[in-house]
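Section 5: illustrative case.
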């Protein structure tokens, strides 16, 4: 799928480049066809015997000026389509292809990326007899190829595929049989999923502090118990912590439940430093609403400090 995406990208960039050089290439094609129909004069003494077309149109010997006038008349006929059905023989080079090679695990092949995949083919030439209408199309492709930098085409195509390419995977349920966890993270991250979230309320913060198995209050209790110090939170203290976390999110920056980490850290870090030197084993710390207000309320009111501390 990735190879197909890159190839489509190459084709798209090639088409864009073709449009930029098409007019110049068309002029070159016109001159090539005129050279076949009315060969340019090579020095003096050129006669109509050397050119069936000149003999057909003038019947007399030609010089450079007459040759140029004849080319102008045929140029007008070419542009009007009067000669589209006439057959001419042209030399056709193998069409260059912009291959973006792939090797194991979907990696790009450096040799192919370097452009060696088409330069050798471009040297192969064969003669073809076509109507002028068909020859013009073949020669136009060839002349446009001469004016395009294929290394630049490949670079732009790869960037286009990387930045704007989309791969549609049909029947994704057959790949992920049970849930999105069956998919590798790199693929999960590519899904354009948009989710609108609502801000956490004070009640949400309170539940986060109480209900989860690994709630922050329980984590801090386990941390203190490692030093045989017992930490206890009153219901009013938990409600006050939830209220302050909600308030800071509203006034400073809404970072969701992560706000509880900064609030709890500022509330209890001093106690952690005092264990076990100041606060001895078998001690009990009771966190009350008054303690929460004493340690946090002044910071909450000072918005400049709370922006950096909380």
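Designed sequence:
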């Amino acid at each position: 799928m990735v190879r197909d995406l890159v190839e489509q990208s190459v084709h798209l960039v090639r088409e864009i480049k073709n449009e930029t050089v098409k007019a110049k290439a068309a002029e070159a094609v016109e001159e090539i066809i005129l050279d076949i129909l009315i060969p340019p004069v090579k020095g003096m003494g050129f006669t109509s015997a050397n050119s069936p077309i000149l003999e057909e149109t003038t019947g007399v010997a030609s010089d450079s000026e007459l040759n140029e006038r004849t080319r102008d008349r045929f140029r007008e006929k070419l542009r009007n389509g009067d000669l589209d059905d006439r057959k001419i023989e042209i030399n056709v080079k193998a069409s260059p292809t912009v291959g973006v090679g792939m090797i194991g695990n979907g990696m790009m092949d450096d040799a192919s990326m370097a452009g060696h995949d088409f330069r050798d083919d471009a040297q192969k030439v064969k003669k073809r007899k076509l109507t002028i209408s068909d020859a013009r199309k073949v020669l136009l492709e060839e002349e446009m190829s001469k004016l395009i930098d294929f290394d630049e085409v490949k670079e732009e195509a790869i960037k286009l595929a990387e930045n704007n390419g989309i791969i549609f995977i049909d029947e994704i349920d057959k790949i992920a049989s049970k849930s999105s966890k069956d998919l590798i993270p790199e693929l999960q991250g590519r899904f354009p999923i948009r989710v609108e979230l609502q801000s956490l309320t004070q009640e949400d913060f309170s539940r986060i502090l109480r209900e989860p198995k690994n709630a922050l209050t329980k984590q801090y209790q386990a941390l203190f118990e490692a030093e045989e110090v017992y930490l206890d939170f009153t219901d009013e203290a938990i409600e006050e912590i939830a209220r302050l976390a909600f308030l800071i999110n509203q006034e400073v920056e809404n970072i969701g439940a992560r706000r509880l980490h900064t609030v709890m850290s500022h509330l209890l870090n001093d106690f952690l430093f005092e264990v076990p030197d100041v606060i001895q084993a078998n001690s009990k710390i009771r966190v009350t609403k008054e303690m929460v207000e004493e340690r946090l309320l002044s910071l909450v009111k000072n918005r400049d400090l709370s922006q950096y501390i909380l």
